Every structure is written in C-alpha cells, then in structure tokens.
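Same chain as my last thread, 226 residues:
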Amino acid sequence: MSTVTKLLLPLALAAAISACSKPADTVAPADTAAAAPAEVAAPAAPEVAPIEVASGTYKLDPSHTDVLVQWSHMGFSNPSAHFGQADGTLVYDAADVTKSSVDVTLPLSGLNSFTAKFDEHLKSADFFDAAKFPTATFKSTKVEAAGANKLTVTGDLTVKGTTKPVTLDVTINGAGEHPMMKVPSVGFDATTTLKRSDFGVGAYAPAVSDEVKVRITTEASIPKAE
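reply #2:
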C-alpha cells in the first residue's frame, strides 16, 4: 500500500463517520394553506327566549298606540301621517294562538300629519271623506304563529266603506305585569304595505305613491275586575 493511500484511508473513514452522525436536513414546511387550522365556524346566534303572554281579553291603550303611514311624494320626500285615538280589543289564547283575535277602530279625528291644512285635505272627499266615513276598522280573520315571538295576523281592513284583506307581520315586544297598573299587559309592533287605491283614497297617484307603508305599535292590558 502506498504512502498516499495510507494517508487517504483515515480521511475517508472520518468523512463517512461524520456523515452518519450529521442530523437530517430540516424538513420543508408543508403548504401553508394545508397546514393552517380549519376556519372556525361563527358561533350560532343565541336562541330568542319566548315571551309568555297571559291568556285573556286585553284593551288597547290609546296613549301608547300609534298607526303610522308613509308614502313617496314625487320621489322627493317620504311624508307620514299618524292615526291615533285607537279603540280596540285583543283576545289572546296562549294555549292555541290561532284562537286569538283583534278588533280595532281608528277614528279619523285622530289623523295627524302635523300640518293642519294637510290634515283638512286628507279628511276631505279627495281622500278619506271623514265626514261620511268617520272611522277605519280592522277585524282579524286569522292569527298564526310565525316563529319566536312572531305572529301573522290576517284580517279585514275597512276604509271609506271599502273592505279588503290585509296581512300584518307582528312582533311581540314584551309581556308581563304592568309596573304601574299592576295588570297583565303586552306590547306589539306590526307592519304591512297597502295600496291606497284599493280603498278609494288613491288621488294623485302615481305622483304620490299608491303604495303606502304602515307601521303599528301598541300596548294593551287586561282591565282590573270591577
């Protein structure tokens, strides 16, 4: 064996030992998208607690009942008018809501657009003809549950001697003992959309929109026994 070979053999052996003892190369990270944790689903919306309404015959509170109608005036503005002084009765059956009913009368004397001259025009024969038809009425024909604290109330609306079916989307706002009167009470909001021409009050359409939005808010209580 040559002198050169004798010198190279130890060097080769040392290199082999060094290679065996060297830690493996760091593994390249997996694809970032694949390694990322799965997207956490948004938490489910909390369930709406049902509002318990006591069964009974409720009397509407005119001081806390308002029927507001709104329309478009030539596309420039969205005026509104209020119908107050409501008189009505709500019969609520907690065991079977379909047996519930509502009967409301709205005197046109309570109509208020906050402009006296316009009120006179609304009450004239151009619109409601209040001298001949002094009230508007709503009498339910069907009440249905429509989800948590929601009702669908269908009934006959009579305006200016014309009766048409109307459906209200109702939300129960709250119920329980009235803190002041100490009697069972309940509060509702309701909405619908009507065509005023269906009731003979369609003057100036379409410049004044035929379609009107109706929003109702009301409170009612079971009167104390006398």
